[in-house]
Amino acid sequence: MKSLAVLAKERGLGRIDWTADPDNPRLLSFYNDIGGARRHDKVFYRLDAEALTKLAT
Fold this sequence. Notes:
There is one protein chain. The chain is mainly alpha-helical. 46% of the residues lie in helices and 0% in strands. The chain has helices at 2-10, 25-33, 49-56. The longest helix is centred in the N-terminal third of the chain and has 9 residues, at 2-10. It starts with a helix and ends with a helix.
């Protein structure tokens, strides 16, 4: 994550967004420890399998 932060700063980016499994407390603890802020105002969407195929055709 540090390397990613360095790259983001080098490219002039102001933030990094990512997703996490809410059922993984160890992972959430890691993200909290590095200064990540959990966003409750965002919703994660995914297109896969049938929905992806349907949209692509």
